[in-house]
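User: two proteins, same treatment. go.

Assistant:
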Amino acid sequence: MWDQLAELISTPIDGFPIHLTFVDSCFRPGKADTLPLNRVYEFCRRFPKRVRPTKGSSAPMRVPLLLSKIEVNRSGKAAKFGLDLVRLDTDHRKCLVHERLRWPSETPGAWNVPVGIDDDYCHQIVSEARVRSPTGRREWIRRSKNNHFLDCEAMLAATSYLMNMQRVSQPREREATARTNENPPPPNDVPPTHRNFPRAPRRIVRSGHLGV
């Protein structure tokens, strides 16, 4: 399974490479008594620049995403080049996914899916509901057993946030900027050496000595 995942993230999609991948660290295949090693961390160490483990937070976080070192050096301090664990605000990310479902399709950033999506994918996206508990706290209640695609889409939104994709301009804005750079408007200001300053009136000085 892990070799298949390694091949998947190393294969470009329509010519575009995968720059960042999140893997849920709570998913540990095998039993703890027979498989003590955390396979997720071991897999992320194989691709330290492109794959990072994640862990969701059930409590609200100060920011939607936090990076923390999970490895220490001999002094007990965080290793400078250790593995980064990405802490995610689960409520924030799942709310983001469900909010986009209600946006009009023509709105920039609206929810769009590729051709070939089946009913199982759609059911998993809405497999959880956000409700208010008796204590007033917001909680996500699972409606069906399979909710993997919802978790994947929530982590996908987190990867785009970490890569600053929310700051990428729309295609029309990029095209307008490119046209402006190719054909810059003529400068309004002419260099001082070429300016046509108004000529000052000539002052005629009459000399009484010459009788003029």
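Protein 2:
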Amino acid sequence: MQYLIPIAFLFATLAPAVSVLDDSALVQAAAHVHDGSLGSKAEDTAVLEEEAEEELAHGNLTKYGDFLNLTVRPVYGPEFSFSFRSAMRLQVLMHALSAKLGLQLSSTTFTHSGRELDPKSTASAFGIQDKAVIEVSTPTLAAEAAAAKEKAAREAAQLERRRAVQEEEDRKEAVRSEKRRRVAKRVAKVAAEQKRKHNIELKDAISLTFINPNGGEGVTMAVKRDNWMDGYLELVAKRLGVDRAKTRFLFKDNDG
């Protein structure tokens, strides 16, 4: 098991065509692990190179496991996709992601489903499957995330205040518009009545208002001065819904 990471390094170096592993990041990460695990033992390195060349010649990649397409989600910043092998130690993944994000490995926390990654475990042994999410956090990223959240909250509060002010202004404008509409309606009604009276005067007529005895809406009618009233009264009775023969019409001027 201790030679798994160096072999992964040699595989990534000798087989650049397998680019799905995010070559540059994994090669650099594996190099760090390689330096720490083998030191400068030339004999061990030569043996590993020979084994790796033999595996590549026979297409034997089973030791590295299946490809995993992971989603890396920093606590602050955009998430991205990253490819890995199920049989590689997670230490390689942690080194690669630290380098890719420009973070210090010693201050970076990697978790999956709330569990902190074990650098000595493999992805498969740790339960990481294809399309899994890896969360990345550091004190700096956490502080930036908190600051961004606070800023977003302030902006949301400001937006809400502006929205409330705009709603109040819209409400007041609606009230003003309704007042203007009512005034315009009254003015138009007065103007129409004045025009009607003027037209009546031009026709040598007068305006009579008949009050509904049943309490309903009355009838206003222009009557020519020289015409007989009987025809008008028949029409008024019909509009008021009363029997003309049983109805008496009494005159009352504006002075009472």
